Amino acid sequence: MMSRRFEVRNVLRWAFALTSLLFIVFVTDEVVDVTMLHNDRQTMESRAQWIATLVSQDESIQTSATKSMLVQFAKEQKVQISVYDQRRQLVFSTKNKEQRMLEGTKQLVVSGHSLAYIKQLPSTDAQTGYLKLIGNKSSIVGLNLFYCFFIAAGVALLLYRDYLVRTYARPIRFATRMAENVLEGSYNMIASDQVKRESILHLNLAMNRISESIHDLKHSYNRQRASMATLTENIGNGLILIDGVGRINYVNQTFKDSFQTNASYWELADYHEVITYDSVKHMIDEVYTTKATLARQLQLNVGIERKYYDVSCAPILNKHNKVRGIVVVFHDITTIKKLEKMRKDFVANVSHELKTPVTSLIGFTETLLDGAREDKELEDQFLHIMLHEGQRLQSLIKDLLELSKIEREHFNLEFAKLSLKQLIESVLLIFKERAKEKTIDLRFEPGDEGIIDGDAFRIRQIMINLVTNAIAYTPEGGKVSIAIHERKDEVDVVITDTGIGIEKDKIPRVFERFYRIDKARSRDSGGTGLGLAIVKHLVEAHEGRIHVESEPGRGSAFTITFKKNLVKSQPNAG
To answer: Of 108, 206, 419, 553, which shows the fewest CB atoms inside 10 Å?
Structure first.
């Protein structure tokens, strides 16, 4: 298509060039012709003026006395002289065959290569006669040859131009296509280095070097860009890049996930308009003003959660010490803060839990040492209380050691195929008498077998803790039921009771250490407040899930989800 278009343009160019050459020749010829005709007129005018002074005398024509002079003049000037009277009759002529009667009075008549000039002879009163001169028209020898040479030279120049155009156009068009391909990211075109013209060779070599350099540069840029994108997306911290005028250029995925926003409208938006946290905006404003790095710990609300972030703002300065942009990094320290709070709460709770039995043991021991042993009945009562508090203390220490063991890095589980139905039936036998004492309807709902991969001892421990809690928090005459529901790849175990229930805002805390819904009831039943924390860790060790649904006064439902097939070849961390 481009070749046909080029050929059409070439034909039109040639037609225009040839037309221009012919037009120049035509105009030049006309100018030369007019100039020569003007010179011939002036020459004829001067000749006619001289002859008129000879033949026109006393208002009459006298040619007899000047005949020889006229013939001599005509021979020298190579003209034909004819004299006519006032009636246009021939009076004298240097040519025998001249027409006898003068026709027409046009002053200058051109006929082929001859030129006729007619002049009225001067007279004061009446017309004396007419003078007619016929001579050869002036011409330039070799003018037509010059025209042919001019046209030939023009055509030769056009041919040479086409030769140059074709010589340079092809490599230039190739270089153009090569440059377009390079801009589009294609580097498969290579310019030839086997050309004779030095300028074309330099062009081709330069284009090859440019293509290679841009290819290397783009490859390096893409590699660095991919590395930077991988780094920013997997840095583990929220990241915002802001330019020198306050527009947001980039927001990484970690920030979007952490702050629960897709931030699709953030890019190129002013940070004052899209960032909703005043403390963060104040930090950015301060960095623009001071040009110094700032780092602060901020508490920010994300949805219904309250999170803690270590926020760092660093300016990007140019060589003129002007702010080109700002990098804002959000490091989520909520977990660290929660761990600190858990550590403080754990120390306080352990101290409180140990204080009560230890105080009781010390108090009753001092009482016995002070003489209470004399009263045998009082001694037995104190010893039973001391035994109970010692058992509580032993149970607490046992649960703490168990929880510590589960949370160790190399905590092992012995996985094997087991039936949840058989395991739960054996667990219910343990609680049969206790449920009967409280007149609680403890039942195992008929359903699926529940074959899974798991550690039988640890799953048994999970079930014992959950059933213990269900019976402890269910009043007399209540109901505790267990059901198994199989799905394609998972098995749900649902433990439901009609106990006191849990308030909605307290449900997330039931798996915390030492957290009790009803502290008095828990202590009376001998609970340590660590059972559900142990349950949660053991369920997660089996890569399972635990879910709680509850309503105050109407009971609770604990749902544990196990995977049917779980191959474990390495120790599991709780």
So the answer is: 553
Name the H helices within 407-543: 420-430, 432-437, 456-472, 519-524, 531-541
Cα–Cα dist 42/115, whole Å: 12
Strand order in the sheet with 555-563: 441-444, 479-486, 490-497, 555-563, 545-551
The secondary structure of residue 495, as a DSSP letter, is E
Position 570 scores a pLDDT of 41
Report the pLDDT value the prediction gives residue 515, as an integer from 0 to 100.
61
Helix (H, G, I), strand (E, B) or coil at 561: strand
Intervals of the chain under pLDDT 50: 520-526, 568-574
**Helix, strand or coil, per DSSP, at residue 494:** strand
Residue (of 494, 466, 477, 507) closest to 560 by Cα position? 494
**How much is the pLDDT for 573?**
40
In degrees and rounded to multiples of 5, residue 548 shows phi and psi of: -125, 130
**Separation of alpha carbons 146 and 571, rounded Å:** 107
Would you say 105 and 118 are in contact if contact means Cβ atoms under 8 Å apart? yes
Note whether 128 and 111 are within 8 A (CB): no
Rounded CA-CA distance 446/421 in Å is 9
Q: What token pair was written down for 38? A: 């003007």
Contact partners, residue 351, CB within 8 Å, separation at least 6: none
Of 247, 246, 264, give the one whose Cα is nearest residue 255: 264
| Phi, psi (rounded to 5 degrees) for 294 | -120, 145
For the stretch 314-323, what's the b/e string if a residue is b when 16 or more beta carbons lie within 10 angstroms of its beta carbon? ebeeeeeeeb
Buried b (16+ CB within 10 A) or exposed e, 255-274: beebbebebeebeeeebeee
